[in-house]
Design brief:
Length: about 325
């Protein structure tokens, strides 16, 4: 309990599997959690969730996400295996996509996969708060030093399966410890190092005349996560998969938070993004890359001219064709017939 109003009812505890992080050949788009962690686990619902990310030795950042509950349906219509899924049509990116993003940005070189702790909270600003903790972080070591063997032992795959903790089951002692830990962290005793925040100042926002303006972009981090996730964290032009090198590009220049619609975004490798902002590259309404004459004469980029971009599997996330064509028209870009 935090204060007189905030009450933690249940805790779901596990390590995120390699498959759930997209590190295997499968195409899993969900992350599982403990059954009965929330009362409505059998319903397809979305819950605004605060995700706290602990990485490095003592670094921390946070972001608001959407816990999109989507359990597995059996052939007979019954539901099993509570899971929260990828993809989001809301302002916030999904919790699953955000976890994968921050793992790839901050934890890829850590030993083992991160710990995920979900807190079901009554009376707080968020019904669910989540902790994603790298194995290298001091908090991870503190947790493993104090929890029972049931919550620290791993299976043959090096994973810890989902466990439900509350005040009335056999893990009550662990439940109380994690509540105390939550209180210490959320009471601002730990320094927050916001390596990436949801409000970033962009000093190179191009307008229709290719001039730069300074604008504060709200929701930029959620926009980046949603766009990259839709394209499997790859550049849509080059298919590059180094997430640190990929940027979320607004097709129609940013005006306000409504500009962060996923159909107004494409993921571009940093150098390709620079060609776009300088008007040297565009994508037409047939999703084909168009270079201007200068870029077509480059040995590095000429082969991209006329190639078709990689599109999201979900057609609802395809970029707006008219917006793409508008950019080509503004910059006098067209393919030779």
């Amino acid at each position: 309990m935090v204060g007189s109003m905030k009450i933690i009812r249940n805790i779901s505890y596990k390590t995120v599997s390699k498959a759930e992080l997209g590190l295997t050949d499968g195409h899993i788009t969900h992350i599982g959690y403990a059954q009965n962690f929330i009362n409505n686990w059998k319903k397809r619902i979305s819950i605004k969730t605060k995700l706290n990310i602990f990485f490095g030795k003592e670094k921390k950042t946070e972001i608001i996400t959407s816990f999109i509950n989507d359990p597995i349906t059996n052939p007979d219509g019954s539901l099993r295996s509570p899971k929260f899924r990828s993809g989001s049509d809301e302002v916030e990116a999904s919790l699953r996509d955000t976890i994968v993003y921050y793992y790839k940005i901050n934890m890829m070189n850590s030993f083992g996969t991160p710990l995920l702790i979900l807190f079901d909270i009554a009376g707080g600003e968020y019904e669910i708060e989540a902790f994603l903790i790298s194995t290298e972080h001091d908090l991870f070591k503190e947790i493993f030093k104090n929890l029972s063997h049931t919550l620290t032992s791993r299976n043959n795959s090096g994973e810890i399966y989902s466990k439900l903790l509350n005040s009335s089951n056999s893990l009550e002692k662990d439940f109380r410890f994690l509540i105390r830990l939550y209180e210490e962290i959320t009471s601002a005793k730990i320094k927050v190092n916001n390596v990436e925040n949801d409000k970033t100042i962009e000093n190179n926002t191009p307008n229709t005349n290719n001039q730069s303006t300074s604008k504060i972009r709200q929701g930029q981090q959620n926009f980046r996560i949603k766009v990259l996730s839709a394209y499997s964290n790859r550049c849509c032009v080059t298919n590059s998969d180094l997430i640190e090198s990929i940027e979320a590009n607004h097709i129609e220049p940013y005006k306000n938070v409504e500009s962060n619609n996923i159909n107004n975004g494409i993921p571009l490798r940093a150098d390709i993004h620079k060609l776009w902002t300088q008007g040297l590259l565009g994508i037409d309404s047939e999703y084909k890359v168009i270079l201007n004459d200068k870029a077509k004469n480059s040995l590095t980029y000429k082969d991209f001219n006329g190639s078709r971009i990689k599109l999201p599997v979900n057609s609802n996330y395809h970029p707006n064709k008219q917006s793409l064509q508008n950019w080509c028209n503004i910059n006098s870009l067209s393919l030779e017939k």
